[in-house]
């Protein structure tokens, strides 16, 4: 039951999360159709429930502050943010993923958020360039801070 077992369990939890997100969103008429705010927050809460236990130094209060746009710059909070951004397919190994991020905007956000988020994403596309992921998850902090500063209606799980 070494790392291999832990990895398999983590992978299973991730796939279960994706299934739960898909179920919570219900049938989508197409990628162009957004979700309701309630569905967006439900999916976000599922991601949060997976990432928070991985970073015990990030309390629910800290996570709530991040959700409200108060983004601390510490290893634990940055790696919590990284966990969520990886689940959202926005970051992979510290590198921003433009196309998967834009795809997630289409799937996971209500229509009223989409244009603003697309603009912010394009403005922040280079915010992780030159930053190292280890040991402090700095690219995640830089990306989320940039998005917060460039998107009027900021949302984060």
UniProtKB/TrEMBL annotation:
Signal peptide start and end residues: 1-33
Gene Ontology process terms (BP): olfactory behavior; sensory perception of smell
UniProt organism field: Drosophila suzukii
Keyword ATP-binding: no
Name assigned to this protein: General odorant-binding protein 19a
Gene Ontology MF: a single term: dibutyl phthalate binding
Keywords, ordered alphabetically: Signal
Record's keyword annotation contains DNA repair: no
GO cellular component terms attached to this protein's record: extracellular region
InterPro entries membership: PBP/GOBP, PBP_GOBP_sf
SMART domains membership: PhBP (SM00708)
CDD domains in alphabetical order: PBP_GOBP
Source species, domain of life: Eukaryota
């Amino acid at each position: 039951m070494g790392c291999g077992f832990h990895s398999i369990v983590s992978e299973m939890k991730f796939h279960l999360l994706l299934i739960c997100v898909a179920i919570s969103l219900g049938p989508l008429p197409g990628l162009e159709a957004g979700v309701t705010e309630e569905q967006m927050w439900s999916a976000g809460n599922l991601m949060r429930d997976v990432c928070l236990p991985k970073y015990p130094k990030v309390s629910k209060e800290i996570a709530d502050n991040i959700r409200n746009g108060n983004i601390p710059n510490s290893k634990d909070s940055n790696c919590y943010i990284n966990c969520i951004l990886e689940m959202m397919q926005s970051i992979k190994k510290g590198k921003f993923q433009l196309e998967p991020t834009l795809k997630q905007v289409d799937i996971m956000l209500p229509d009223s958020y989409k244009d603003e988020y697309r603009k912010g994403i394009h403005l922040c596309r280079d915010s992780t360039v030159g930053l190292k992921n280890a040991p402090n998850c700095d690219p995640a902090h830089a990306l989320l801070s940039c998005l917060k500063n460039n998107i009027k209606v900021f949302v984060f799980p």
